[in-house]
Amino acid sequence: MSENTTQVSSTIRDSIVTITGGTGSFGSTMATDLLLRGVGGINILSRDEAKQDAMRRRIDDSRVRYFIGDVRDADSVQRAVNGANFVFHAA
Predict the structure, then answer these.
(1) DSSP alpha helices (H): ranges in the chain?
(2) Could you tell me the strand order of the sheet in which 41-46 lies?
């Protein structure tokens, strides 16, 4: 690993991360990578319940929590980012 990758890993390790659009191709890949790097938890926000169910089956990890919602709805975003240290907007 490069020095920059190691620094990012230590920054993210044990943190809570929210990924908006988390069931899309970028968000899903990011979630998998973050889990491998030791993230404390991931909140996935997406509006597609079927994609969330498929992701839940593919990524069987208790650190991942799923939130149905839309980035255009402030209340659903607030629920997903509550307690998060980092937010990645992939929607």
Answers:
(1) 3-12, 25-36, 49-58, 74-81
(2) 64-68, 41-46, 16-20, 86-89
**How many whole angstroms separate alpha carbon 51 and alpha carbon 85?**
25
The pTM assigned to this predicted structure is 0.89
Q: Two tokens at 48?
A: 């597609």
Q: What is the pLDDT of residues 26-75, one digit of tens each?
A: 999 999 999 999 999 999 999 999 999 999 999 999 999 999 999 999 99
Residue 55 corresponds to which tokens in the numbers above?
Answer: 């992701």
Retrieve residue 27's tokens: 């968000």
**Long-range contact pairs involving 63-72 (C-beta distance under 8 Å, separation at least 24):** 63/35, 63/39, 64/31, 64/35, 65/41, 67/43, 69/45, 71/20, 71/21, 71/45
